[in-house]
Design brief:
- The structure is a homodimer of 124-residue chains.
- The radius of gyration of chain A is 18 Å and the shape is elongated.
- Helix content of chain A is 63%, strand content 6%.
- Chain A is built from 5 helices and 3 strands.
- The two termini of chain A are 19 Å apart.
- In chain A, helix 1 crosses helix 4 and helix 2 crosses helix 3.
- Chain A is mainly alpha-helical.
- Chain A has 2 domains: 66 residues, Winged helix-like DNA-binding domain superfamily/Winged helix DNA-binding domain (Arc Repressor Mutant, subunit A, Orthogonal Bundle), CATH 1.10.10.10; 45 residues.
- In chain A, a hairpin with a 5-residue loop joins strand 2 and strand 3.
- A 3-stranded antiparallel sheet of chain A has the order 1-3-2.
- At the A-B interface, helix 1, helix 4 and helix 5 of A face helix 1, helix 4 and helix 5 of B.
- Chain A binds a DNA duplex (30 and 30 nucleotides) through helix 3.
Chain lengths: 124, 124
DNA sequence: TTTATTGTATTAAGTGATTAGTACAGTAAA
DNA sequence: TTTACTGTACTAATCACTTAATACAATAAA
């Protein structure tokens, strides 16, 4: 999947979200070795320093760990990945419901719109 | 409503989104006079320059217009406000569905979760 | 007329994100 | 041993956003 980084928000944050998504999706499996910092930076067309910052942050979160000279690896703790998925989904849902409520959409109205919108998406 | 500005994204963008929401909500009605730049800046505890930037941008969008010395007024074009509401909602919906799809949630799964989550919200 | 308020413009300073470039220590492979 | 690759650290420069501090012209109100 392409990185799709823009200048609206800090790039290192977008990188974190991108990698979190790929971990949840299983693009990177538990325990799997990641490409090197320089390799990832090249893929994302980003400065190695920026990629390093994102990876360090994810390491701090416990999502990966580095072996100093051998490389960097995804956590082997599958429950942590499941938890991550639920947290990401929960955040999306609560933000979405809150925002739609603010825009003035009631619960039933919202479900109707969503059903309709989801049918549209299926036609593609 | 409080402004709830953070440093994650440019403040002037957050101000724009906040005011767009208040216009859609009818906090500011079509044709209504807005507080002065300095007054709004004080309310949001933000520099007047930053507020000015946000307001100029919304003026460029056609959502408001300034009368040079008398003050600044919301557009009287109600259809523009309706359109704004639909655009904001449409953006929220498509972003949400896309993100949940990426996280691996199917359509039916999503509707079930939403129904459950909406019931939780009603209990409060 | 005088006063206060309006939107607007300008300059300077500070901050955080990003890039560029370089460097170092540890290790696996040749 | 030598070579290449690993994560990591550091400095400098640039850019956008924000704040601060003024300033000015136009107008409504006193």
């Amino acid at each position: 999947m392409s990185w799709n980084l823009n200048s609206d928000r800090p790039i290192f944050q977008q990188i974190i979200e991108h990698l979190e998504l790929e971990i949840v999706q299983g693009v990177y499996e538990p325990g799997q070795k990641l490409p090197s910092v320089r390799e990832l930076a090249a893929q994302a067309t980003v400065n190695p320093n920026t990629m390093q910052r994102a990876l360090s942050e994810m390491e701090r979160m416990g999502l990966m760990h580095s072996e100093r000279t051998s490389g960097r690896y995804i956590t082997e703790d599958e429950s942590m990945i499941k938890t991550l998925k639920k947290e990401l989904a929960g955040g999306e849902i609560s933000r979405f419901l809150e925002q739609m409520r603010r825009l003035g959409y009631s619960g039933e109205e919202l479900l109707d719109i969503l059903k309709e919108e989801m049918c549209k998406g299926e036609e593609k």
